[in-house]
Design brief:
By secondary structure, the protein is α+β, with helices and mostly antiparallel strands. Helix content is about 60%, strand content about 15%. Strands 1, 2, 3, 4, 5 and 6 form a six-stranded antiparallel beta sheet that branches. The longest helix has about 90 residues.
């Protein structure tokens, strides 16, 4: 027996537009499920059609990309739901769900839910509206939240030597560094060329200056190479993050498109059933009115 009340069920966005009678009927066909920490509540590729609403706890939604790496799509808490895509489309699960701690869900089977929607076509419109809103939110999240800043991610892994190499490489490419070298070389040459020779510690051809410049060039080239290697690692990280964003975008957009198309088809079926029932009721009512009129005329 579920502990969820009609009021709590109404707080779930998917059912927030339904009235109490619809919610009471919906609650009667739900089954409470309990998952232990780390247990799979849904597995990608399985032909399961159950839809889960989180009553308590947290679920992690994830999949495995082509490289065999785990890609976390979302973490869902109480009031959120998962498994709606395969329930509506009838296809295999597109992602997996694992419980983070104890997870309690309300399980709703595909056939029972579709029977409910056929009896309650207005509820089907409410579900379609919420799924459209979820698609919009997913699109916004993919634009802003799915990716990480590669600069921030790389900064966390920097060693002290790499930080020093970045500082030196940045400074050596500045105008200030150029001016300091120009002033230093000019002073060195003038000091060793003008005035009494007793003060000339590096006379022409300035061998000590030549050696100093060569050593400076060697060390600066090493620091620049270290900085360039770091930039290459940062570019690879950015490419990997872009790939993860593309995986999320492709999965979410394709599955939501299938869901909306299937919902559109189902709503057409429901509308057709409603029209048939309406026409049948009108026919029966007309027949009844004719019979009553004939009885009145006979009297």
């Amino acid at each position: 027996m579920t502990r969820t009340t009609i009021h709590e069920l109404q707080q779930i966005p998917l059912f927030s537009n339904m009235d109490e009678e619809e919610l009471r009927e919906l609650l009667s066909i739900m089954t409470e499920r309990i998952f232990q920490p780390g247990q799979l509540a849904m597995q990608a590729g399985e032909a399961e059609s159950a839809f889960h609403i989180i009553e308590a706890g947290e679920a992690e939604i994830w999949l495995t990309d082509t490289d065999g790496k785990k890609v976390v799509l979302d973490r869902l808490g109480p009031g959120k739901f998962f498994g709606e895509l395969s329930m509506l489309s009838g296809d295999q699960r597109s992602a997996s769900a694992t419980s983070r701690g104890e997870l309690i869900t309300l399980e709703l089977e595909r056939d029972e839910f579709f029977d409910f929607l056929r009896r309650r076509p207005d509820a089907g419109l409410d579900v379609l509206t919420e799924l459209a809103e979820r698609l919009k939110r997913t699109d916004d999240i993919l634009r802003t939240r799915a990716s990480q800043n590669p600069n921030e991610a790389e900064e966390k892994r920097l060693s002290l030597g790499q930080r020093m190499a970045d500082v030196i490489a940045d400074f050596s490419g500045s105008i200030l560094f150029l001016l300091l070298n120009a002033v230093g070389f000019t002073f060195w040459i003038v000091w060793n060329s003008v005035g009494p020779s007793v003060f000339h510690f590096d006379p022409y051809p300035y061998q000590f200056l030549t050696m100093s410049v060569s050593l400076e060039a060697i060390f600066l080239s090493i620091f620049v190479l270290i900085s360039q290697n770091r930039q290459g690692a940062k570019d690879r990280l950015k490419a990997e993050l872009d790939y993860q964003v593309d995986v999320k975008a492709e999965l979410e957009m394709s599955t939501m498109a299938v869901t909306l198309r299937d919902m559109h088809y189902r709503l057409h079926e429901i509308q057709r059933d409603v029209n048939q029932i309406t026409r049948k009721s009108e026919t029966e009512m007309t027949s009844t009115m004719v019979e009553m009129s004939q009885e009145i005329l006979q009297r």
